[in-house]
Amino acid sequence: MESLNYMYNIKMIFLSMLLGLTVRVYAQPVMLAAESFLPGIISGDSLEFNAAFSPDRNSFYFTRSVNKRSQLYYSMRTRGKWSMPTRLPFSDTNYSDADPAFSPAGELYFISNRPIAPNDTIKDYDIWKVVRTNSGQWSQPIPVKELNSPEDEYYISFTKTGDACFSSSRKGGYGEEDIYFSKYKGNTFSEPQNMGGTINTNHSEYDPFITTNGQALIFTSSGRPDSFGKADLYWSVKITKEWQKVNHFSDAINTSARDYCPYISTDKKYIFYSSNGDIKFTDLGILPAGLIQAINNK
Questions:
Q1: Buried b vs exposed e over 106-141: b needs ≥16 C-beta within 10 Å?
Q2: What SS3 state is found at 215?
Q3: Torsion of CA 193, 195, 201, 205, to 10 degrees
Q4: Which stretches does DSSP call E strand in 131-231?
Q5: Which of 19, 53, 63, 120 maximizes the CB count within 10 A of its CB?
Q6: Domains along the sequence of the chain with CATH
Q7: Rounded Cα distance, 201 and 173, in Å
Q8: What digits encode the pLDDT tens for the residues 274-292?
Q9: Which residues pair with 181 in a beta bridge?
Q10: How far is CA 295 from CA 34, 61, 98, 180, in A?
């Protein structure tokens, strides 16, 4: 991938002779199985999960478990080389932070179990964000009150217009966690709406990644009868404003372990997800044709 300066960005040249002319055919190697992302830099001995590239694609944000707490880290690419990760300064080691995601405006969203106010006694995960200050540094974390509830919120993603998709264990859902959607208009989010029984079940649905065009959704579910392991990845596409029947990824993606935190690279070439303690990635081309079409629709 050009944006990652990765080893699969090599062209193989095949020569043949036809009517005395030399014909060159260029083929791009395809990853046939998911691999750990940047082993020894990102994927290591700790538990790593999540994936989010900065808007300029020169920084990679993820979560690492340290001393039984999850913390936000990032790596920077300089002259084609990725740096060893650094903990983000606002990721407080007294609490757990996770699930970094960039909004279309370049704000960095994440979840945290830190208290929203000094007198906050509810130990739940909420959605927070930081913004760039005039000095170029990240601001202090800001709770996103329109999306939060007294229960847990997890894993936010965005369409290109800023609409948000996330999971929550709030009351009134179908199962333990459900996936919700909120429209973004006038610099605020509308009241989150449950995405309904086509997506959610009486099991657990979480870690939703909605594509920038809003036409495809990839998420994790645990407890479904067709699951290969502890939790699997599933997908659905939107046709004429309606989400279609949910599909289960094959064993090209899912494993006997927990597969979660899906993310599609901003160049739409790779799918990232977390499994077996590492951040994995593979070519988008191994996904079902209907899903690829929905991802690439205008």
A1: ebbbbbbbbeeeeeeeeebbbbbbbeeeeeeebeeb
A2: coil
A3: -90
A4: 142-143, 153-158, 164-168, 178-182, 184-185, 188-189, 193-194, 204-210, 216-222
A5: 63
A6: 33-296 (2.120.10.30)
A7: 9
A8: 999 999 999 999 999 999 9
A9: 165, 193
A10: 19, 22, 25, 20
Phi-psi region of 268 (alpha: psi -120 to 50; beta: other; left: phi over 0): left
CB count in 10 Å sphere of residue 214 = 18
Average pLDDT value for the chain: 90
Q: Give the whole-angstrom CA distance, residue 159 versus residue 290.
A: 19
Distance CA 216, CA 193 (A): 17
Q: How far is Cα 59 from Cα 82, in angstroms, rounded to an integer?
A: 8
pTM greater than the 0.85 cutoff? yes
CA-nearest of 86, 84, 85, 87 to 97 is 87
The encoded tokens of residue 78 equal 């300089």
What is the C-alpha radius of gyration for the chain, rounded to an integer number of angstroms? 20
- Conformational region of residue 5, where left means phi above 0, alpha means psi within -120 to 50, and beta covers everything else: left
Annotate 11-47 with b (16+ C-beta within 10 A) or e (fewer).
Answer: eeeeeeeeeeeeeeeeeeeeeeebebbbeeebbbeee
Question: Which residue type does 113 have?
Answer: N
